[in-house]
Amino acid sequence: xxxxxxxxxxxxxxxxxxxxxxxxxxxxxxxxxxxxxxxxxxxxxxxxxxxxxxxxxxxxxxxxxxxxxxxxxxxxxxxxxxxxxxxxxxxxxxxxxxxxxxxxxxxxxxxxxxxxxxxxxxxxxxxxxxxxxxxxxxxxxxxxxxxxxxxxxxxxxxxxxxxxxxxxxxxxxxxxxxxxxxxxxxxxxxxxxxxxxxxxxxxxxxxxxxxxxxxxxxxxxxxxxxxxxxxxxxxxxxxxxxxxxxxxxxxxxxxxxxxxxxxxxxxx
Length: 268
Prior knowledge:
62% helix
C-alpha cells in the first residue's frame, strides 16, 4: 500500500474522492438516497476505464477516503474535545482511520479491474459481488466498523428499502451497486445494447414494488407502549465528574415519570 501511495496519483483519484464524498449525502440526516446511486455508479465508471489493478486500487481508495472523511470525521471531536488528544494527533488519527476504512473499496476496485471480463451484466454482477464482500469484511474484520454501509442509505422512500427484510443491508448494498454499475456502464450511445441493462434495472424496481406490498410481520398480543428517554444534557456536562449525580437523577426521574411499558435509555 505504501508503495502505491508513494507513486503518482491516478487521474481518476480526485473524481473518485468527490464521488465518495457526495455519496454521504444519501445518508441521514440528508437522506438524498439517489446520490448514493450516482456516487457508486461514478466509481464503477472510473473502474471500467482504469488501465490496471493499481489504478483500480487508487480509484477505490479515493472513493473510500472521500466517503469516510465526509462521514466519520466527526470522530475528531470525540478524540480532541472529549478525549483530550492534541489537535494535530487527533487529525492524523482520523486520517489514518479513514485510510484504513478506504482499503476495503480499494481492494474491491483492484480485484474488479483484475477480474473484469465478459459482457455488461457479468461486469455489473462482479462489481456488486465485490462490493458486498468489501462491505461485509469491513463489518467483521477487527470486530468490524459497518458504519456507512451503502444499504443503510436505502431506507424509505427509496424503492430498494423493500428488499431490506429479505436480503438485509449488505444485500441491498449489492443491489444498489449492481443497478448503479449497469447504468454507468451501459452503452448509451448504442441503442442496440441498451434494452437488456434497462430491462434488468426496471425489473429490480418492479420487484421492489411487489416486495413493498408484503406484510413481513404480524402483531401478536396486546400492544406495548414505548418511551424513549432523552436527557438533552450537553456533552461537556455529561462527562464532568461534578455533574454525574445530577445526570443520573435526571434519568431516574424521567424513567419514574414515564407510564410506558418499555423504556429506552441512552447508552451513555
